[in-house]
Design goal:
single chain; alpha/beta; Oxidized Rhodanese, domain 1; 4 helices; about 35% helix
Length: about 100
């Protein structure tokens, strides 16, 4: 499923230049532990109802803890004919590769 995923190193330039709409689909308790900013916070269970809040003019990337739930969010977006990607390895891999100050859980 590589065409549905983006690695942390591929994501970083888009975050820096503002071309990415990053969406954290984890639960509030997970967000309290660590987060990637800037990101919109929409729990996975609310994605289908909140599609209108997502900036479709940007490249949409979802993330979760390990990258499994975010692939579900990509599938929801595809059902709305909207392309998006999942952060491969989730915030866990992000913490390993990009931001070691991000708490792991």
């Amino acid at each position: 499923m590589n065409f549905l995923e983006i690695t942390p190193t591929e994501l970083l330039p888009g975050l820096k230049n503002g071309s990415i709409c990053l969406i954290d689909i984890r639960e509030p308790w997970e967000i309290d532990i660590c987060t990637i900013e800037p990101s919109l916070k929409i729990p996975l269970g609310q994605i289908a109802d909140r599609v209108s809040e997502i900036a479709k003019e940007k490249n949409i990337v979802f993330y979760c803890h390990h990258g499994v739930r975010s692939l579900s969010a990509v599938q929801i977006m595809l059902s709305h004919q909207i392309e998006s990607k999942s952060l491969k390895g989730g915030i866990d891999l992000w913490a390993e590769v990009i931001d070691p100050t991000c708490a792991k859980y």
